[in-house]
Amino acid sequence: MAAGAGLLVIFLAWFAGPGLFGISNDAKGTTVQAEVIQPTPCVAGGTAETVKFEFGGKPMEGALNGCGHGKGERLEVVVPDGASGNAVSVHAADAAAGAKDARRPVGLALLVFSCFAGGMYVYLVLRGPRRLATA
Q: How open is the CA angle 100-8-23, to the nearest 5 degrees?
């Protein structure tokens, strides 16, 4: 019974997809070409570079959460949906997180091991204590 329940949980988790483990493939924004207008060296933590780009038919500036680019360097950035004004926070398009990493297989493996451990615990509880044979 416990093994069947464990297999059912694993089967349902497999077909639930990447969303079960908090993995999302949704790209939240629009990719545009940007030019670095104020570069920042990578020696201090928490720095941001200023980039200019065209979004929605009008020129905009934004803060790129990156460092080490040269002045005038062109790169692709992701602008969040509904961005407006001059203080837009953008990130590099090639730095967007996706579901092409090991989170789903590792999460599924941990689920399999936890189902196995739970099944073994139920088996041991139902089996009861063992008595040592006296000679």
A: 20
Residue 58 DSSP SS3:
strand
- 0.85 surpassed by pTM: no
- Other CB atoms within a 10 A radius of the CB of residue 32 amount to 18
H-state helical runs in 58-134: 103-127
Q: How many CA atoms lie within 13 A of 119 on its CB side?
A: 16
Residue with token string 């990493």: 101
pLDDT of 5 above 60: yes
Give the whole-angstrom CA distance, residue 35 versus residue 83. 18
- Least confident range from 64-73, 76-85, 110-119: namely 76-85
Q: How far is 86 from 83, CA to CA, in rounded Å?
A: 9
CA 122/CA 116 separation, integer angstroms: 10
Rounded distance, CA 75 to CA 94, Å? Answer: 10
d(CA 38, CA 70): 8
Q: How many whole angstroms separate alpha carbon 95 and alpha carbon 112?
A: 31
